[in-house]
Design brief:
Helix content: 40-55%
Keywords: Kinase, Membrane, Phosphoprotein, Transferase, Transmembrane, Transmembrane helix, Two-component regulatory system
Pfam families: HATPase_c, HisKA
Structural class: alpha+beta
EC number: 2.7.13.3
Subcellular location: Cell membrane
Shape: rod-shaped
Organism: Nocardia jiangsuensis
């Protein structure tokens, strides 16, 4: 695993690294400048001495000794290539200019000049370079020491200043930690940071993320609560017919019944089995609807869908007459099977629970783009107090009797929600009740 460091340590390390680069470059330039400057000073001294020696070598050497410039000087004078004067050690014949030469194991700084007179006198003058080298080394050590101090100071200042720089991040971290431990996320204040642009942006991103997490947690909690309630009610609804079926089976097994009694119990068993099947099928359709995603919505012709549902209803319920009133062009983005299921359930409820013999299926587009789909019937109607409750799962109205699963209108309400609309009951035009599906306009995917 890679070792992690605090942001403050990283800032201090970055400051030290930057100081190393800058100080190293400055030190290299300074070291080179010190060496060159010391050599230039020696060359200047040698230049002064050489100009005096070119005039009269013997007198010049004595004079330089008197003024302090002749100490440790080595002078070699050549006229026409022959040595006419020399002081130990004798300097070799060298090209004009200054250079460092080693004589007898001792480094000398040597300057060779020539006279402009026709005599062609050449003077080589040297001085031991050890003192100059020692001075240069000493100055360079001072420079290197200063460089190390500068690097250490940069790291220390980086550490101190980084504390203030990362303080908003530290505060933000503490706020997030405190908020995560807060017992009620809805009552917790959003995190905040000020003074540093990056910290403010990070606080915004953290708040957005926390809002999404809180929303997801709330949705998950609501879904779990709904699932628990749904499972409890479903178990209750299925337990009643299953208990009745078990009782009938016990009667058939233990009692000696005549043919009429046996037929009655078998018919009751069949009714219970049909009720269980109906409930399970409705539960399956509800679960399938809950799993639908936006990408499953496609272009749907509502007028054609209503026409098909009406013809199928009249085929299943021969005593029912269904009229159709729809606009010619009613295409929307939706779930064809879901909308068809809603219309089928509405017509089936009209016949089974309202005793309807006539129904009107209408669909029109309003000026605001909403498609309003209605199912009117001439049945017994629905009490106004129950018009909102019948859309709940397993709720049976007062006129529903014992048949059905109590999930038909819950499926209708689910499809309305899936289409981002709503379902409700209104007064009918045929004497019964009117089921209304209000579907808002939706862009195709």
């Amino acid at each position: 695993m890679s070792r992690s460091f605090s942001l403050r340590t990283r800032v201090a390390g970055s400051a030290a690294a930057g100081a190393i680069v800058v100080v190293t470059l400055i030190s290299l330039i300074s070291l080179r400048a010190i060496e060159r400057n010391n050599l230039q000073q020696i060359d200047q001294q040698l230049g002064i001495a050489s100009r005096i020696i070119l005039i009269e070598p013997v007198v010049a050497v004595n004079f330089l000794g008197l003024i302090g410039l002749g100490a440790d000087l080595s002078v070699t004078v050549r006229d026409g290539g022959s040595v006419t004067a020399a002081s130990p050690p004798q300097l070799p014949e060298l090209p004009l200019g200054s250079r460092t030469e080693e004589l007898g194991g001792v480094p000398y700084r040597v300057l060779t000049t020539s006279s402009s007179q026709p005599s062609g006198r050449v003077v080589s003058i040297g001085i031991p370079a050890a003192d100059a080298a020692e001075l240069t080394a000493q100055q360079q050590r001072w420079v290197l020491g200063g460089a190390l101090l500068a690097i250490a100071a940069a790291a220390a200042l980086g550490w101190l200043l980084a504390g203030a720089a990362v303080r908003p991040i530290t505060r933000l971290t503490r706020q997030v930690s405190a908020r995560s431990a807060f017992p009620d996320p809805d009552a917790a204040h959003p995190v905040a940071a000020a003074g540093v642009h990056e910290a403010e942006k990070l606080a915004e991103a953290v708040n957005t993320m926390l809002e999404r997490v809180d929303r997801a947690q709330a949705e998950t909690a609501a879904a779990l609560e709904t699932a628990r309630d749904f499972a409890a009610v479903a178990a209750h609804e299925l337990r009643t017919p299953l208990t009745a079926m078990r009782t009938d089976l016990e009667v058939l097994r233990t009692l000696d019944l005549d043919e009429a009694q046996r037929a009655e119990i078998l018919a009751d068993l069949q009714r219970g089995q049909t009720r269980v099947e109906t409930t399970l099928a409705a539960l399956e359709r509800l679960a399938t609807g809950d799993l639908v995603q936006d990408r499953d919505h496609v272009a749907t012709d509502v007028a054609e869908l209503c026409d098909q549902a009406a013809h199928d209803a009249m085929r299943h319920f021969p005593g029912l007459t269904v009229r159709i009133e729809t606009d010619a062009e009613l295409v929307t983005t939706g779930l064809p099977a879901g909308l068809r299921l809603a219309v089928d359930n509405a017509l089936a409820n009209s016949v089974r629970h309202g005793g309807a013999t006539e129904a009107l299926v209408a669909a029109h587009r309003r000026a605001d783009g909403h498609i309003v789909l209605t199912v009117d019937d001439n049945g017994s109607g629905l009490p106004e107090a129950e018009r909102g409750q019948v859309f709940a799962r397993f709720f049976r109205g007062s006129a529903a009797g014992k048949g059905g699963s109590g999930l038909g209108l819950a499926l209708v309400a689910q499809q309305a929600r899936l289409h981002r609309g709503r379902a409700y009951f209104d007064d009918g035009t045929l004497g019964g009740v009117r089921l209304v599906l209000d579907l808002p306009p939706r862009e195709p995917h």
